[in-house]
Amino acid sequence: MKNEHAKVVTLITVFDAHDLVLKAFSDLNVRGYTATHVEGVGAHGQKRTGLVEAQNLSYVIVASEALAARLLAWVDDELLPRYAAIAFSTDAVAVTASALT
Fold first, then answer.
1. How far apart are CA 27 and CA 52, in angstroms?
2. Which of 69, 56, 60 is nearest to 9 (CA)?
3. The CATH number of domain 2-96, selected from 3.40.50.1980, 3.30.43.10, 3.40.50.80, 3.30.70.120
4. How many CB atoms lie within 10 A of CB 26?
């Protein structure tokens, strides 16, 4: 195992976008991610719901700089015109068993 410079991409969007996000991850060759249901307040106000299936989702992806750029471009070009979302990346050092894509 070795340390690699990486980006952590965080994408937060509505539950209704889940299928579109998963298709994009497949198309962009995202090999792993973590998804969690989240609550909070943003540009669209506070999300108020009692159904787990209607909560916003947060996806966290550890990626190469190139993959992070492709993910953020996809959010800007494909996701934001259709759904409320925010995405950002931060620098990281990852301990990996294989190279990041």
1. 27
2. 60
3. 3.30.70.120
4. 9
